[in-house]
Amino acid sequence: MPSKSNPRRSDFEVGILAALALEAQAARGIFDEIYDDETENASAGEDGRATRDTNSYTKGRIGRHEAVLAHIPGMGKVNAANAASSFLSSFTELKLVLLVGICGGVPHGPNGVEIMLGDVIIGKNVIQSDFGRQFPDGFVRKNSVDDNLGKQGPRIRSFITKLESCKQNLEETMSLKLQSLLRKPEFEPLKYPGSSEDKLFLPDYVHKHYNAQTCECSQDGKICSIAKQSSCEELGCSSACLEARKRRQDQPSIHFGSIASGDAVIKSGQHRDKIAHREGVIAIEMEGAGIWEYLPCIVVKGVCDYADSHKNKEWQRYTAAAASAGARAILEQWEATDRPRESGMVSVFPQLIKLQN
What we know:
This protein is α/β, with parallel strands linked by helices and 357 residues long.
């Protein structure tokens, strides 16, 4: 029998998927125990991997759950779909898979709710936002029943409803787990960047040179390559074009809603708002559509930017940590499936019946 430090593949019911190295690092941080990869890889048969499985894994324990982290080889739907297919070929008993990482946030959610950098999005639905037709006057997404992604199964939908009902408790647990995560040596000196660094520009205020005479920025609707690579400080982006935020925070909040998923990195406030208005989404990311119909999954993404032309990487590591802390809080609410008793224990019952007779 495999030891507790080297469980069988069939013992793993919880999976985590991460595309970027910084997302995977944050996800590893929520494991209470990581099993010896060399010991596991030396095992043959069921304790190894399926023959055509191309994923790399980190296996271990998160709380009371045996959990396995699959490292997606890159961003986008195709990479995610391939990873999901391999995942299921080796780990056939997965009951819950969390897609953990970072995303672009829609700053104004339903009913005027403010979504801010560092917040965590839990996806109730995923919409493949780039699947459609490009006409001369614009893009039209295919929106028929056959073209839309389906629903998750009843157990996942029921679980999300449970999570919504205990949102405050979930946020409190996430905050504690995030503080614990950030105290680990591999995350030092990572900390909350501060509300002063949470800058939301007006959707039509573009990140470009505004006093340019010779570069493309002087042309209507154009942005030169230098401006695209420059920071707001280097370009002198005007603070007069910042949107005022009512909400103040030093800890992330959780938001439930639909997520748009596509292969394009959105770096336009106006395009972001068009997608949000058209689809009713609160976040935009790149992997969810690839796994949604393959796995029993929940998308858990931290808001690291506002999907506008001013986006940068300053919040990425902190937000990845927040999303992983949110995933840990979610797993504390997840109930493992009852497993059959070992055959030696089951055989006792016929003997008891015989004695009673």
